[in-house]
Amino acid sequence: MADLSGTDLDQLLGEARKTLESMRQGGGAAPDRPAASRSEQLQGIGEAAGGRITVTAVPGGRIDAVRLDPRAMRMASEELGEQLALAVNAALDDLRAKSAAAGADQAVDTAALSRQVERLQNDGLRQMALIGQAITESLSRIGGAR
């Protein structure tokens, strides 16, 4: 049985967290893969008012950018609001479609995740046993010193 240091346990926990975070975000990326840069990030694009309004949506249901052509500012406020809502909804719909397609392309390897979690659990139990043994030995020494 190999001794698991605090650093090793921390590394295992970090790998598990990265893998689970990747799953939560809908990607099956390997834990060592760096996060996508803003330009590579999955985005949904929506347009309205004949292309005078463009909205970019990103994962998490967030709006990353709203671009208004100066001509859009000539619209009545009600019409501008309606067109903005259309562009936002189109961007979110586009993002959902792209996310679904990306999810089909990036299936999560649940077997690998299961093996990693099992390894983490086993290593954690071994570490806890070692800690318990050390505590018992220390208490025995303290009790014998009296």
TrEMBL record:
Which superkingdom heads the taxonomic lineage of this protein's source? Answer: Bacteria
Q: Where does the chain cross the membrane?
A: none
Chain spans, region Disordered: 20-42
> Which keywords does this Swiss-Prot/TrEMBL entry list?
DNA-binding
SUPFAM superfamilies according to UniProt? YbaB-like
Entry GO MF terms: DNA binding
Q: Which Pfam families does the annotation name?
A: YbaB_DNA_bd
The name of this protein is YbaB/EbfC family DNA-binding protein
What is the organism of origin for this protein?
Answer: Actinomadura bangladeshensis
